Amino acid sequence: MTALRVFFRCFDGCPGEWPLSLIDTRCPRCGGLLDVQHDEAALTHRSGAKWRELFDARRLSSNWPMSSGVWSKREWVNPELADEDLISLGEGWTPLVPMPTLGQELGIRNLWVKQCGHNPTGSFKDLGMTGLLSQVARLRRLGAHIPAVACASTGDTSAALAAYCARAQLQSIVFLPAGKLSDEQLTQPLCNHAQTVAIDSDFDGCMALVAAFCSRHGIYLANSMNPLRIEGQKTLSVEITQQLGWQVPDWVIVPGGNLGHVTALARGFALQKKLGLVDKEPRLLVAQAAQAAPLHRAYLNDWRFEKTVAGPTQATAMAIGNPVNVRKAIAELQRVDGAVESASEDEITRAWTAGDRHGLQTDPHTGVALAALRKQVEAGRILPSQQVVVVSTAHGLKFGTLKRAFHLSPGSDTQTALRNPPLRVPAHLPAIEDALLPKLR
Questions:
Q1: Could you report the per-residue pLDDT of 341-367, keeping only the tens digit for each?
Q2: Whole-number Å distance between alpha carbons of 390 and 318
Q3: What is the β-pairing status of strands 149-152 and 172-177?
Q4: C-alpha to C-alpha distance for 423 and 54, rounded to whole angstroms
Q5: How far apart are CA 161 and CA 166, in angstroms?
Q6: Which parts of 142-246 fold into alpha helices (H)?
Q7: How far apart are CA 81 and CA 123, in angstroms?
Q8: What is the helix (H) or strand (E) element at residue 253, kind and residue range?
Q9: 312-321, pLDDT tens digit by residue?
Q10: What is this structure's pTM?
Q11: Residues 105, 157: contact at Cβ < 8 Å?
């Protein structure tokens, strides 16, 4: 096969190409965002049918690194890497689960949920982090001085960075907004011995500080402004079509915070179509919490974006008022005739509890996606006959404290019927029967 080239190029169109060996992954000319560019002409030397055949064969392999859903598509991620560079925890290949009964409740007949919470650290962030840390490993192997890798996070990015840095035996640093993570999310970087810095700010403030810190001290930045993350995450789109027998759903619903994920998925579907693996792309719906919905406001305002200050929301990863990848995401959504929907806190709670009642362990961000799906079906944009994939971004067990508190909370508010507190009864069979049998009739 023709040798594959990959390089950085400025998203805003500055002339020039730069190697992936840049430590500061911002445009050297304007300081803006970079994109990873592949030599797509070289990729076309293998037909779409041959790509499908190759990816299907790798899916059946248990040999490392093909056991990774990301590195089984390594030509599309970073073909410069050697096997010794790959920092993998076996990410990807997460289940795509049909949910017909839940779909009926939401008004559609063909609903699937992509369970990204089954990744090693419990979220889709692992797909991007393996791509980024593997490039860092390559640079260190070639002699680059990279003392640590850092990120700002509302939870899942810090967990992924800490775990993959631990796998690489590399120091990680995470900047977190103090008091705004779940206990479970905070525990993850602590366990993997990340240097954890709690800051009295929101995510946007942490993001500005970590970017300045990395630039000043030669630390490698791991947030999704680094386009290597997007390269790993775009493999999720290949998994979805592959698991559907190389068929493309009508809609894919993506929870949106910093908006790297929807950008990645859109580009992955576009590349599949360009290389002939599939014959169309899905429409994309970004779901945001109403308390932190700057993209939804832009969508309602003819895509004119203005940054905001995010309010408090149980979907903590969405508490971002100025998403780094907003212009990339808008460009992709316009290209595929996508849409954006928001959900209130009550709608989010009702949605994740509904998901749980159907056997899922639903995190609040997936609750946002399910709530957005219901609203778009009711509005007539998504039709009952269409096939829909909801991307479940994280595992609900990351939010066990929140969910436990919800079910144990007393009160007679409108959500009482959603709660499922334990029955407290004496150790006496007739008392147990009195309490339990009426609930079985």
A1: 999 999 999 999 999 999 999 999 999
A2: 17
A3: parallel
A4: 53
A5: 8
A6: 156-168, 183-191, 203-217, 227-233, 235-243
A7: 24
A8: strand 251-255
A9: 999 999 999 9
A10: 0.95
A11: no
